[in-house]
Amino acid sequence: MEEVLRQSQKMEAVGQLTGGLAHDFNNLLAGISGALELIETRIGQGRSKDVAKYIAAAQGAARRAAALTHRLLAFSRRQTLAPKATDVNRLVDGMLDLIQRTVGPGIDLRHRGADDLWPALVDPSQLENSLLNLCINARDAMPEGGRIVIETENRWIDRRQAEAQDMPEGQYLSLCVTDTGTGMPPEIVARAFDPFFTTKPMGEGTGLGLSMIYGFAKQSGGQVRITSEVGAGTTVCLYLPRHRGEAEADGPDTGKRPLPQA
Length: 262
Ligand code: ADP
Fold this sequence. Notes:
Elements: H1 2-43, H2 49-76, E1 84-86, H3 88-103, E2 107-112, E3 120-122, H4 124-140, E4 146-157, H5 159-165, E5 170-179, H6 186-191, H7 209-219, E6 223-229, E7 233-241
Parallel strand pairs: 2-4
Antiparallel strand pairs: 1-3, 4-5, 5-7, 6-7
Adenosine-5'-diphosphate binds next to helix 4 and helix 7.
């Protein structure tokens, strides 16, 4: 519990700080981009090849910096979620092509969906972002190629598991992404959800992926867990609350057991 509090306070503080900084940076970048455009038009056609190259490089850097500040702004804004009954298997199927194109042909991508999966109560577009992010992390951990398995399952979290996993007991769906990559030593796992923690080279990682996924999972009433073994691979599991309500009749329902009493 203390750990959860520490993590959410840290995210709150970092969120406020980054929000302010990213906003100011964005304004400065707009100035830089505007000035570069003016330089380009003023110098016109008569410029040397070298000058054109330097201007293009500066414009490219300004564009990348702007993309980064947008990510920071998105991180600092507390996401407003629009949760609804979601068929997670269908959502994964709908993303497989995009994921395969993103991770490249060297990765063998599989989806093992549970047949009788409950509908989840979750914001589908945020779930798509999270899944893509997890698959990109998996790919980054497999520079020589390998396998990504996306697996869904119905989970009954009882009191004992709830305590161990730091989440309320109840019915959840798990969406796990497993890779055959480098794995993470325990000291990296311990810091992986920290905002801005990255082991990737400058310009390649922001260290925001897992912390955003953590925020999304907690805000959705779920959880996220990492299990990893160095040299063998990593599994990151998102636990999403089961949708219970009117729409439940539309979805597959095999959960005949009553919800445990609080
Ligand atoms: P980023 O990907 O920008 O570094 P993340 O928050 O997504 O930021 O990840 C933080 C760190 O956790 C990564 O830099 C990496 O060291 C580690 N990590 C995340 N996912 C994996 C994975 N599937 N396998 C190995 N290491 C991982």
